[in-house]
Amino acid sequence: xDIVSIVIGLLVGVSxxxxxxxxxxxxxxEKKANAIVEEAKAEAEVIKKDKxxxxxxxxxxxxxxxxxxxxxxxxxxVDAENRVKQKETSLNNKLHENNKKDKDLRVLKENFDxxxxxxxxxxxxxxxxxxKQVEMLEKTAGLSADxxxxxxxxxxxxxAKTDAMAHIKDTxxxxxxxxxxxxxxxxIQSIQRVATEQAVxxxxxxFNIESDDMKGxxxxxxxxxxxxxxxxxxxxxxxxxxxEAIILSCFDPVRxxxxxxxxxxxxxxGRIHPARIEEVVRKTKKSLExxxxxxxxxxxxxLGIHGLHPELLRMVGRMKYRSSYGQNLLQHSREVAxxxxxxxxxxxxxxxxxxxxxxxxDIGKVPDDEPELPHALLGMKLAEKYKEKPEVCNxxxxxxxxxxxxxxxxxxxxxxxxxxxxRPGARREVVESYINRIKELETLGMSHNGVEKAYAIQAGxxxxxxxxxxxxxxxxxxxxxxxxxxxxxxxxxxxGQVKVTVIREKRAVNIAK
Length: 513
Hints:
There is one protein chain. By secondary structure, this protein is mainly alpha-helical. It contains 14 helices and 8 strands. The protein has helices at residues 2-141, 145-192, 213-219, 224-233, 253-269, 274-303, 310-318, 329-347, 351-360, 375-385, 390-398, 409-422, 431-446, 474-491; strands at residues 206-208, 236-238, 245-249, 323-324, 327-328, 451-457, 462-467, 499-504. The strands form 3 sheets. A 3-stranded antiparallel β-sheet has the order 1-3-2, covered by helices on one side. A 3-stranded mixed β-sheet has the order 6-7-8, covered by helices on one side.
């Protein structure tokens, strides 16, 4: 029991000590807390005073800004009132001036009305006097006013027509001077930059042999060899008295070339009989077709033209065996292509397109069949068939004016075709057609009234017309020259250009005795 009492006593003592310690700690914490609260209150008072000061300063600054804004607005209002007063004063002054001007205008109007009445009365008097004078003139002249007016109109019309013709001529001449200078420069540069052979190449139609003994072997027994050759080639073989020569006659130059090559091979080989002839002609045709294609390819490579349809290549090669007025068609087309390229480069156009159109412009002359179409239209249809561009097709179809020109390279192709065909030594002309053209020129010159004589000179490149000086004036001579040139241009076909010269000469002759 004593131990328990002791233990209980100890526990009670400990508890009391803990309680006392807790009480002491609590009192100490309360003191610290009170001190902290006091410090916080002091700091709060300081912060409060700072914030009040800041608020007062902010209020004062806002009040100052507000007073400045109000003062600025008051100044603007005062300025606006001043401007309104100035405008009002100005409007009053203008109104006063306008009222004054109105009064002056009313006075002027009254004066004008009075003067207008005077003018009207005088106009009536003048009209009466004019009618009297017209009646007197009609009696004196024996013509009515309408008749005199119609005569005057006719006279003025003739004078106006003559003046207009002179003005047109001056305008055309001025335009020609400016346009021709540039055109001549481009054409001359194009011609100078293209090297062209002057010799005319013809398709061969005469086959030379070493001796006349070969003629009998070519004819064969009862003429069977020559008949077999003609049947295989479609060429007429003429064996006549011409020494050491056989004439091959055919409209188709390709057939004629086939016959020439086949005959050359037969004569070289020495075996000439119908079966051998048919075999050689067949091989020659195949070889010539291959050669034609190679010629077309080589021509396009030389000119830098690519992507041409194989059938068009073959047609280009066939041009070698075709001539026009003695001018080889392939050489002509190459020349036109080079001229077109040069001219297109001078004008800043598509050079390759122009060269392509120049090469193909005459493909209508070498078709496999012979349709009833002009070669320009046929060439255009062939180009369209083989998917050539519209510019090329139009240039081919329009180079002889069968269709309208729709692109800039079309007139270039036409001009270059004329240059190539009209240069010296390019073509030969049949005598009959040349004489007919000369006669037609002179007849056209004689078709005008007052023309005494007309002469075509310089191989038809100039027409000189002599008029009667008593019937034709200088202005009428200009008119006749212009009209003849226009008629030649519209009615005739000719290479190059034709110069029309009208000569009006007055001669006074007296004899001293």
